[in-house]
Amino acid sequence: MLDRLVEILKGEVAGDAVDEAFINEIDGHRPFVVIRGEHWVRAAEVFLQHEELQCGYLRSVSGVDLGNQLEVVYHLLSIPLRKEYGVRVRTEREAPSVPSVASVWPTADWNEREIYDLLGIDFPGHPNLTRIMMPDEWVGHPLRKDYEAYDPEV
């Protein structure tokens, strides 16, 4: 299943679209791919539209601070085919950016806003990328490992 997924993505998106592919044993042996940011929107469209994938349900989107870089993790589900996939899109810490897939899966909208607010990852192409949890005047992104609270007592 993993090999076929990589074959589909490389054929339909780009030969260099997949940086890494692995089975996440801890997560129910879910096939995972790491997609290059510049190919992410097209890859998302392939996940949605390809007859062998049909991932019409975006189960979750999470942002992760890995210390040296940030990443966004997507869990995709094909209800008709009863298959699940994971996708990671990595970005640098300075000026982090991952293209928005809210146009592909509208459920990404609030998730991307939350990640933007709490981790500072920009989502170009998002229809309304504004803070969703923290006040507009809040400084910084509280889920980053290097975040220092203005008032550590709070």
From TrEMBL:
Protein name (record): NAD(P)H dehydrogenase subunit J
Domain of life: Bacteria
Family: Belongs to the complex I 30 kDa subunit family.
Nucleotidyltransferase keyword on record: no
Tagged with keyword tRNA processing: no
Cross-referenced Pfam families: Complex1_30kDa
MF terms in GO: NADH dehydrogenase (quinone) (non-electrogenic) activity
Residue ranges of the TM segments: none
InterPro entries reported in the protein's UniProt record: NADH_DH_suC (IPR010218), NADH_quin_OxRdtase_su_C/D-like (IPR037232), NADH_UbQ_OxRdtase_30kDa_su (IPR001268)
Domain NADH:ubiquinone oxidoreductase 30kDa subunit: 34-150
Record's keyword terms, sorted: Oxidoreductase, Transport
NCBIfam families linked: NuoC_fam
